[in-house]
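Sample intake sheet
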Amino acid sequence: MSGSAFLHLTRPRMELRLTPSAERAGGVIGEHDMRQAGFDNRVLGIAAIVAAIIVLSAQDAFIKAISTDYPLHEIILVRAFVALLLISLIVRWEGGLSTLKSATPGLQALRGLLIVAANSFFFLGLAALPLAESVAIFFIAPLFITALAAPVLGERIGLYRWSAVCIGFLGVLVMVRPGTDAFRPEAFFPVCAALAYAMMQMLTRRLGVTSKASALAFYIQIAFLIVSLTVGLIAGDGRFAGSGHPSMEFLLRAWTWPAMPHLALMILIGGLSAVGSYMISQAYRKTEAAVVAPFEYCAVPLSVIWGYVLFGELPAGTAWVGMALIVGAGLFLFYREIRHGRPLAVERPMPRNR
């Protein structure tokens, strides 16, 4: 997970070229061809987003699988390096170095740091929590964005949207269960990740970003590299490790040269990250965010499958209830935004690196 996000999307322009027969026939067939092209783009967009979520869900599962052997930022360093190489090829294909020019370099840096924070919190939670629960809790990010839209952007949030926000946070409480013997403080890591991501979205929406998707992805991978190297220099010798807590050990254990199978897996994680991120950007370019964004919630059932297959995990009964409340609240928000013709509060729920 990680990402660059583009807020406040409008309907993308579709370049449609009528067939000669359509041009000869006039407006009726031309309009039919335009509708067909729009339908085809929606199908392609949905296929791309589902494929991307499958790829990125696998990335999350693989990171969890090696979280007991290697520190987080060593994995992220390899992932970012591989992803940056692949994204650089896309940048060159889309126009070269001129693509990377930005009128807001400070904003790019701050956005990158917030995405790094969101990723770090998410994976710290992932090291100690079941995969499905971490992913589901993180999906309160759109709820945070809706709640923050009132004080930060001055937007009016109606009763139905506030109700959805409250129901989603109720789902978090059901899963976290504070005040009971089942409470685990590490459950707040994905909550912090969602909050960091929401703050990044608010920043982007308030100040605006006009860079291409590939440029945004490039800068975010640079942020990952810088932060990972800094953490490695400060804590890479393991001097701060030893607490025994899975999340803290994942963050602070000593860096070691990975065994070849694990190094190959880290490289694969980088490839999955780049491919999945690119497919997501294509999905949002092919069709409207309102069409493809809800399909990102496929990540929740996929995380249940990955968790069971790789780790033998199944959410507890109360966790299922909490997951249903969070996903239901998020999908209801999308429904309300689409029905009332408002720009989506968030281009995409999950922060993936792209």
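Comment: DSSP finds 14 helices and no strands in the chain. Residues 27-339 form one domain.
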